[in-house]
Amino acid sequence: MTQTFYDYMAIPEKCLLNKPLFKKLFQEHADLDITDKKALKDDIDKIRWVYTLNPSTLNIEPYRDYDEIAIIQIDLTSASRAQRIATFVNKAIPYPVMLVFSFADTIAISVADKRINQADKAKWVVEDAWITAWFNPDAPNEAQQKFMQDMTIKSLSFVNFYAFYTDIKNRTIALNTADRSGSYSLASGDGTINRAEALRELDKLEQEKTELQNKLAKEKQMGRQVEMTTKIKKYADQINGLKEKL
User: Fold this and answer.
1) CA distance 244 to 180
2) Which residues pair with 71 in a beta bridge?
3) pLDDT tens, 99-154?
4) Roughly what angle, to the nearest 10 degrees, separates helices 190-218 and 161-181?
5) CB within 8 A of 182, min separation 6: which ones?
6) pTM of the full structure
7) Per residue in 44-76, pLDDT tens?
8) Residue 121: its pLDDT value, please?
9) Are 111 and 130 in contact (CB under 8 A)?
């Protein structure tokens, strides 16, 4: 399952590390709240550092904070808190990572732009994080198939590690876009920025729409029901309009 995805990436053998990472690492190097600790304890089966990409294993130059990229696989027993897990793993590891979550027969890919905290050089700030929907790499739909084909190492930028990682992020955003629009295609520059902004706005609108629908189900007053139904229709129109622009 995960091996199918790695086969598509075609990462050189010399990049293979395949070493376990123990939960204690994240207990010591991540600022975990109660829910994080529960996710670490109950939701994670195994964590492995599968590949390490750096100038000695891949012929790519470093760029500022992007001098090494780790590909880390996290096998889950529950997928409900994957995004939360991605956040604290990113804060604990002091360089860019691509997370490959696995659960049952599916995987999800997570990436995040990070920078060193200028106030505390020992800490990293996660600025822009993305995670794909779950999919089965052994039985992908058309968009997922194109995504995996685009993730092959040779199709990514070798200008420097920042450009390399940006290409991975852009492909992740493209797959998330395809989940909403039904069509997978790569964008660059302003196109990717606009897509990212539209996806964030979609998430916000869909959450607000769901919350209002839940309130409507409990509302008894006819006037409030009509008002809420009208607002839900407006949310639906805005959501559809954004999807058409993706």
Assistant:
1) 9
2) 51, 98
3) 999 999 999 999 998 877 666 655 667 778 999 999 999 999 999 999 999 999 99
4) 40
5) 143
6) 0.89
7) 999 999 999 999 999 999 998 899 999 999 999
8) 58
9) yes
Give 184's contacts (C-beta < 8 A, 6+ positions apart): 142, 143, 146, 147, 174, 175, 177, 178
Tell me the C-alpha distance between 89 and 99, whole Å: 9
**By C-alpha distance, which of 158, 75, 64 is closest to 115?**
64
3-state secondary structure the chain: CHHHHHHHHCCCHHHEEEEECCHHHHHHHCCCCHHHHHHHHHCEEEEEEEEEECCCCCCCCCECCECCEEEEEEEECCCCCHHHHHHHHHHHCCCCEEEEEEECCEEEEEEEEEEECCCCCCCEEEEEEEECCCECCCCCCHHHHHHHHHCCHHHCCCCCHHHHHHHHHHHHHHHHHHHHHCCCCCCCCHHHHHHHHHHHHHHHHHHHHHHHHHHHHHCCCHHHHHHHHHHHHHHHHHHHHHHHHC
Of 156, 176, 178, which is closest to residue 167 (Cα–Cα)? 156
Q: What is the per-residue burial (b if ≥16 Cβ within 10 Å, else e) of 78-93?
A: ebebbebbbbbbbbbb
What tokens does 122 get?
């020992």
Segment 23-44, tens digit of pLDDT? 998 888 778 999 999 999 999 9
Residue 77: Cβ within 10 Å count? 11
The alpha carbon of 240 is separated from its chain's Cα centroid by a whole number of angstroms, namely: 23
